[in-house]
Amino acid sequence: MKPDQAKLEIPFIRAVRRSSEDVTLDIDGQIFLAGAEDTVATAILLAGALPNRLSAVTGQPRAPFCMMGACFECLAEVDGVPLRQTCVTPVRDGMRVRTAKGKLV
Ligand code: FES
Predict the structure, then answer these.
(1) Ligand 1, from 38, 42, 55, 73: best to mutate by most atoms within 8 Å of Cβ?
(2) Over the stretch 9-36, which tens digit does the pLDDT of each residue have?
(3) What number does CATH give the domain 3-98?
(4) pTM for this structure?
(5) Which of 6, 35, 48, 64 could lock onto 74 through a cystine, CB 3.0 to 4.6 A?
(6) What 8-state DSSP symbol labels residue 11?
(7) What is the chain's Cα-based Rg?
């Protein structure tokens, strides 16, 4: 979520948040706020930074789907490490996330 959109509430995602503390992370060069206990995939979805990658087989756009580490649709580069499963990666203040728009991962 962009800092200027901090008042935007998405009930489905806000309902599972356990902490009101926010962290700042860089997604594709833009700064967003995320809940301290969010995953990177949640932050990507809230930021609207989709698709997070393209299918290596078909080139189709992909996005987080299962949110529990089973489908591998949420892969992105996190702090320079490629192919991280962002749905099982907790956010950290200052984290740098790069989606793979326009290239096959
Ligand atoms: S969303 Fe399915 S493995 Fe991450």
Answers:
(1) 73
(2) 555 555 455 556 789 999 999 999 998 8
(3) 3.10.20.30
(4) 0.78
(5) 64
(6) H
(7) 13
